[in-house]
Specification:
The protein has 472 residues and is α+β, with helices and mostly antiparallel strands. The protein contains 11 helices and 13 strands.
């Protein structure tokens, strides 16, 4: 298959050649036409000049022409290719160039005919025209002027038209070469980014084919998209860059995920292993306290595995939502009740501002979202209040319900806020304090909201508290 560069080059060259050839032929034809008209005018003027010159040789006193003067005039015009034949008013022979020098006349005409035929491709025939001769308003005779017709070029005119054609041809070729050169450069410029983008796409494909080999930072198409002044090419290279960035991030996330899962599993497993070894070695007694601790670790593991399974089902789109109608205030009250004890133990109050709202959604999944948010609020708040509120709002032009869970906890640093819904993401402080969670609660909440077509977002002021809002 022909390359884009060659296709562009061929197309440009074809059109440039066609345009220049048309221009050349048009210019050539136009210049020839103009020149021929000019030559015709020159011949007419020459004929008039001959008539005047012959008239000047008339001697009125003798009532005849000065033959010697007529001969010298006639011979001059003969050299120029005009054969002059003069008669008096009675039609009697006065002077004739042919009679003077037949051979010379034939030679001059022959030369003109050859020049016109060989150099200009024009066939000429001898043509003659008669003009009356006047002296003081009276006819004194007649002159017949024969010359090569329909027109002929003098030596100088012939040289001029040949030079003009050569100059035009030279200009044509120089312009052709220059324009073709520019076309080649332009074709190369247009095709280069596409070739590079293709190489980049191939490199990406090769990296993924070779078991997720990481993408090199300097992909073949590493020039910034803005460098290309063509919108489409900039868009193409921009898209390749975006794709490469996305893939790099996806690869990094995947790597991170494997590491995080291993890490989250290792901690409870190590704790379980340590406890069991201590029990076996007789260091600890297998009392209810130790066994409860073991049970809790196993429950945490089970919860984590369940959470991961839920997440994986959402991410693969393998989840069915069972819609029912229920009272949202009721659901929120139920969820809050589950945390009353935990909150009381920490000295936190849970307050609610609920409004009646009939919802049509998956009850279980909705409750899971609220529980995940409430559980975080209770987990991260050391003192103060947690408020659960419902508000009727207008969202994208429709009535909507906004559920807000507001706490007076430590808040979320600005640098962490954009990431808290990401899988296994935990703000630095939460990791350090060992507050428990694996960093999937919010990810599950977001996945459920996305599946239900809801919006979930967090606002927070570090040191003051956080507000999590679900708009449905
Ligand atoms: P985790 O199980 O660690 O709580 P989540 O996905 O539920 O995981 O939350 C992710 C991170 O977001 C938490 O580790 C914590 O740093 C931050 N976070 C979530 N909710 C709150 C909150 N109410 N107050 C402060 N930080 C929070």
């Amino acid at each position: 298959m022909i390359s884009l560069k060659n296709r562009l080059m061929l197309t440009y060259t074809f059109f440039i050649c066609a345009a220049f050839a048309a221009l050349f032929f048009l210019l050539n034809a136009a210049s020839k036409k103009i020149f021929d008209n000019f030559v015709r005018d020159v011949i007419i003027e020459k004929n008039q000049e001959i008539v005047r010159a012959v008239e000047e040789q008339y001697r009125p006193l003798q009532k005849q022409f000065d033959l010697a003067a007529l001969e010298s005039v006639g011979m001059i015009f003969m050299h120029d290719g005009f054969i002059v034949d003069v008669e008096d008013s009675e039609g009697r022979y006065v002077w004739n160039a042919r009679d003077m020098d037949m051979e010379h006349c034939a030679a001059v005409l022959q030369k003109i005919s050859e020049r016109m035929n060989a150099k200009h491709g024009k066939k000429t025939e001898l043509q003659s025209a008669g003009f009356p001769l006047f002296y003081s308003g009276k006819i004194i005779g007649n002159v017949n002027i024969a010359s090569a017709g329909p027109l002929f070029y003098t030596e100088a005119q012939s040289e001029f038209i040949i030079h003009l054609n050569l100059t035009l041809a030279a200009l044509f070729f120089i312009s052709l070469v220059v324009c073709t050169g520019f076309a080649l450069i332009h074709a190369e410029r247009l095709s280069r980014p596409i070739v590079r983008a293709t190489q980049a796409a191939r490199t990406i494909a090769a990296c993924y084919a070779a078991a997720n080999r990481p993408l090199p930072d300097d992909l073949p198409e590493s020039a910034p998209a803005e460098q290309y002044k063509t919108r489409e090419l900039a868009a193409l290279t921009g898209a390749i860059h975006e794709m490469a960035d996305e893939l790099r991030e996806a690869a990094a996330r995947q790597k991170q995920l494997t590491g995080d899962v291993a890490h989250e599993l290792r901690t409870p497993l190590a704790s379980i292993q340590g406890t069991i070894e201590a029990l076996l070695d007789g260091v600890w007694e297998a009392g209810p306290e130790r066994l409860f601790s073991l049970l809790n670790e196993v429950k945490r593991l089970t919860q984590l595995v369940n959470d991961l399974q839920v997440l994986s089902s959402f991410e693969s789109g393998n989840i069915t939502l069972t819609k029912t109608e229920f009272d949202m205030a009721e659901l929120l009250r139920d969820a809050a009740e589950q945390f009353t004890n935990a909150a009381r133990e920490k000295g936190i109050e849970i307050t609610s501002r609920l409004i009646p709202w009939r919802a049509a959604a998956d009850y279980g999944r909705t409750k899971q979202v609220i529980i995940n948010l409430l559980s975080n609020a209770v987990k991260y708040t050391a003192q103060g209040t947690i408020t659960l509120s419902m508000e009727k709002i207008s969202y994208t032009g429709k009535d909507a319900l906004a559920i807000k869970i507001t706490d007076t906890g430590p808040g979320i640093p600005d640098k962490d806020l954009p990431h808290i819904f990401e899988r296994f993401y935990r703000a630095e402080k939460s990791r350090n304090r060992g507050t428990g969670g694996a960093g999937v609660g919010l990810t599950i909440a977001r996945a459920i909201c996305a599946a239900c077509g809801w919006k979930i977002y967090a606002e927070s002021v570090e040191g003051k508290g956080s507000v999590f809002t679900v708009v449905m």
